[in-house]
Amino acid sequence: MANNTKDQLDMADLAASLPAAAAALSAQDRVGLVNALKNKLQNLAGQHSDVLENLSPVVRKRVEVLRDIQSEHDELEAKFFEERAALELKYQKLYEPLYAKRYDIVNGVVEVDELKDETTTDQADGNTKEVKGVPDFWLTAMKSNEILAEEITERDEEALKYLKDIKWCKIDDPKGFKLEFFFDTNPFFKNSVLTKVYHMIDDDEPILEKAIGTDIEWLPGKCLTQKILKKKPKKGSKNAKPITKTEKCESFFNFFSPPLVPEDEEDIDEEEAEELQNQMEQDYDIGSTIRDKIIPHAVSWFTGEAAQDDEFDGIEDDDDEEDDDDDEDEVDEDEEDDDDDDDEDEEESKSKRQTKKDSIPNTGATGEQGERPPECKQQ
């Protein structure tokens, strides 16, 4: 019976993998995949026909019809993923001109119509100077997001002021997505573009296989992901120079050095594997936040409107939880009140009993005068 159950699960897993696999292929390959997997399922069904043989002929016939219905469903689902991918691609292309206009305005490439005949100035330190574009646009937008704000240190901010644009695109081989960070010439590193690529096992239920980041070419003494520690030499040491060593430190730019997944799972123990999984989940959380929130709604994060919406959503969730807690508290209070009332009633009853007891003459007789009332009888 256990083997039969396992076989059923294996077939279910194979059937469930159909749409995920189809989503990563071309239309022609997808049709071939559907047919191939249908044949595979049929072959597996033949190999494990004992499952059906245990059914009565009537029930077996119904199951066969259900399998046909499932096949039709799988074909439709494959078409759904195909059309969804095409729809996403269509709108991604429609977004691109808007992102290009945003880039030009943010970086001062063009001026908005209302200001073409005016001079934009910034009264800073008593000096009048021209301000191009929107300074610190991407830095401010990212810092407004709670998840990204935790990753950005004060040391990072100066470098992130040179960030001109962030883009993302979907990749098919292997499937996943790529983030691109475009930087102006800066005093921190030579790279003009820093990339982060996520390889996914499944797009529809995101399962991260691994992530690959750019090797940052830091300029001498400008590495933000490491700090230099200097230690005085011991007294009497021949080397009078301070001992220096580098140590990894917190920085947003660690994002481009994601956790590495060992090729051999036996190389890490259970605790290390759990820690690695947590790091990968956090890394994917940062990447997906940039892709799904910051890039499409950058100006809303820059102004803080998006952050307020997030906070409002959080308040609503907290209110729901508090309401539940209040309800529980009210129930508890009601129960306590009931208990208090019961205690008071019991005390009052005891008092009355004691009063009646004291009023009965203690004669020791068993007649009517000396007999205790029924409610006072000891059990």
Automatic annotation (TrEMBL):
Superkingdom, taxonomy of origin: Eukaryota
Gene Ontology cellular-component annotations: cytoplasm; nucleus
Swiss-Prot/TrEMBL GO biological process terms:
double-strand break repair via homologous recombination; nucleosome assembly
Alphabetical keyword list: Chaperone, Cytoplasm, Nucleus
Per UniProt, the ranges with Basic and acidic residues bias are: 369-379
Tell me where it mainly resides. Answer: cytoplasm
Enumerate the residue ranges of region (Disordered): 259-279, 303-379
Q: Which InterPro entries match?
A: NAP-like_sf, NAP_family
GO molecular function term, any single one:
histone binding
List the subcellular locations.
Cytoplasm; Nucleus
Any idea what job this protein has? May modulate chromatin structure by regulation of nucleosome assembly/disassembly. Could function together with B-type cyclins in the regulation of microtubule dynamics.
Family, per the entry?
Belongs to the nucleosome assembly protein (NAP) family.
Query: Could you identify this protein by its name?
Result: Uncharacterized protein
